[in-house]
Amino acid sequence: QVKxxxxxxxxxxxxxxxxxxxxxxxxxxxxxxxxxYRQAPGKERELVAGITSANSGSSTNYAGSVKGRFTISxxxxxxxxxxxxxxxxxxxxxxxxCYAPLLNSWGQGTQVTVSS
Length: 116
What we know:
The chain is mainly beta. The protein has strands at residues 3-7, 10-12, 18-25, 34-39, 46-51, 60-62, 70-75, 80-85, 94-100, 105-106, 110-114. It contains no helices and 11 strands. Strand 7 and strand 8 (80-85) form a beta hairpin.
């Protein structure tokens, strides 16, 4: 059974950092691309970052709004994908979700709140 469990969210001041983790199980993690999405109150869910499978070189892509501030990475041995978020802004406040696109599987989400 595919399972994705996010952690690492919380309250942080503007300019601060957080690292989100998504622990995956139930599938051969290294063979699948992974993505992070977020959804702010009253807004549609949006793609934040993606990383391809290990076989595809673990290439990354980012939404323009987070490029240069966020970094997606993966540890295939730990079957975990990360989202390092630096220079956080109030507009980054959202629930962040992990997603495995080829499996159409979502995690439960983790809340990130950026506020002074």
